[in-house]
Specification:
Blueprint: E1 17-23, H1 27-40, E2 45-50, H2 57-67, E3 71-75, H3 82-95, E4 100-103, H4 115-123, E5 128-132, E6 139-141, H5 145-162, E7 174-177, H6 178-181, H7 195-206, E8 211-215, E9 217-219, H8 230-257
Parallel strand pairs: 1-2, 1-4, 2-3, 5-8, 6-9
Antiparallel strand pairs: 4-7, 5-7
Helix pairs in contact: 1-2, 5-8, 7-8
Length: 263
């Protein structure tokens, strides 16, 4: 049985925080990532969300939970995508009284030393804090040129279509206030891959949330294979396009209704 959190993040008044780490075939990375998170921010708990990894990641996660009272594991019956894993983590955390949930990759690309700054941004009043690669002080290390170009182009296209000012719209290292998350109609989210991050950013902007970007250095994974594939890219392109078209259509309707166009 999972315990109810009984402590706050040191120096914070925002309540207990948990770091959600989705895994699928991350046996070579998960132990190092979890240990670094626990050391880098002693006030947080960790939730490993494993989608029945065939490489035994789930068994290793159970061993980590047995060794550390701050580590918990949520086993899911099959691989269902990043979005579903995070939604399950959000629900798990909310049921147990956590007030902040942090998204973190299992592969070592997100530096746990940045956790205190992400949490501090929420403490300072943001509903969402993003670990941003694309603002001053942020950067990407050891990525192939085509991966960096794809990420930057995706960001430019998304910001143009949706009118967003957020620089790193696909950022996967982020912290949310759970009470704010619950206002985003999460039951209607069906984004599967990395488009999930764009989806929640877009919803947060429309909800009027304060979003703070915190510069981070993103480093290519330590081991294992990236989960990025063509289907994930197509999903993001399709969703952003249809959201953008609907957004621009609403803007035009408002202009016509005010008599700004054609008056």
């Amino acid at each position: 049985m999972s315990r109810t959190p009984d402590r706050n993040v040191p120096g914070s008044d925002v309540g207990p925080a948990i770091v959600a780490i989705p895994t699928y075939n991350e046996r070579d990375n998960i132990e190092t990532t979890v240990q670094a998170a626990l050391t880098g921010c002693p006030g947080i708990d960790v939730l490993i969300v494993d989608d029945s990894s065939p490489d035994g990641t789930g068994d290793l996660a159970d061993a980590l939970a047995a060794a550390h009272e701050r580590v918990h594991v949520l086993h899911r019956p099959e691989k269902q995508g990043l979005g579903a894993a995070y939604l399950a983590a959000f629900a798990w955390a909310a049921e147990r009284g956590y007030r902040i949930v942090v998204e973190m990759d299992a592969d070592g690309s997100h530096d746990p030393a940045d956790l205190p700054r992400l949490l501090a941004a929420v403490e300072d009043g943001a509903e969402v804090s993003l670990g941003s690669r694309y603002i001053p002080g942020g950067s990407v290390e050891n990525w192939a040129l085509h991966r960096l170009a794809l990420s930057r182009c995706a960001g430019i296209y998304t910001r143009a279509m949706l009118g967003l000012k957020v620089q790193d719209v696909t950022a996967g290292y982020r912290a949310y206030r759970l009470d704010a998350l619950q206002k985003l109609e999460l039951e209607t989210v069906n984004s599967v891959g990395y488009c999930f991050q764009i989806d929640l950013t877009w919803r947060a902007v429309k909800a009027g949330f304060t979003i703070r970007e915190v510069p981070i250095v993103f480093t290519e994974r330590r081991a294992g294979a990236s989960k990025m594939n063509g289907a994930i890219t197509v999903e993001a392109l399709w969703n952003v396009t249809r959201w953008g078209v609907a957004h621009r259509a609403r803007q035009l309707r408002r202009l016509f209704s005010r008599g700004t166009i054609g008056g």
